[in-house]
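ZP: hey, is the adenosine-5'-triphosphate complex queued? I don't see it on the tracker
AM: it wasn't, my bad. submitting now with these inputs:
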Amino acid sequence: MKDLHVDSIRKCYHDKLILSDIFLSCRKGEIVGLLGRNGSGKSTLLKIIFGIEDAENKFVRVQGKVLKSFADSRKLINYLPQDNFLPKNIKVRNIINLFLPQGKRKHLLQNVFIKPLLQKKFHVLSGGEKRILEILLLLNSKADFVLLDEPFNGVSPILRDLIIKNIKDEKSNKGFIVTDHDYENVITIADRILLLKDASLKEIKDKRELIKYGYLSKTTYKTVFLNLG
Ligand SMILES: Nc1ncnc2c1ncn2[C@@H]1O[C@H](COP(=O)(O)OP(=O)(O)OP(=O)(O)O)[C@@H](O)[C@H]1O
């Protein structure tokens, strides 16, 4: 089965229930958008799926293989954390050579945004340059599923468009779970939208439900989706 299947996830921090019996799935070729207010538990959920955060209870299966630890998941799932994860003192060209298999490097080495950065060390890149490099590395990795935590944070419109284009280009090869406070773009690219609220996931079938669940105000909804601002 070419899918990511997540079930029975339960997580508390200091007796506060963050995630309660969470179920979600993602197929190859699918983009799942994950929305939720600040502190609702989106990053925690992605970290648990990736295997770098413990949970009281969890079941994660990728393509029929049950993942018990980070060691099990690393080749099948990749994860973009909110904070930068690449080594600071290594030049971009070397980072690409380190992170990607040979057949996947050329595409990135010749990318119009990445080419001018190749001789620079990671720590001197701007915030947006760091983000686009990290995202393109994950999109070109071998993993079948990619979890993106705030990929649009701090990037200019032109880079945001590039990220969206690259996600769409890779969609036939991978499944994605994307969370970002840039909800308009998450909604635009996602095949399905899930909202994390009160420790539970709710499937959003109609954007108006985002008002009902207190994620968007009526005014914002009308301005953004009905152009009635
Ligand atoms: N290591 C930790 N110890 C204690 N509490 C934590 C820890 N990590 C997260 N939390 C709490 O768990 C809740 C969920 O945090 P999480 O970062 O998953 O939310 P989020 O939905 O990703 O938020 P945001 O959109 O603001 O990034 C928050 O209340 C946060 O304070």
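AM: back. The chain is about 35% helix and 25% strand.
ZP: great, adding it to the tracker
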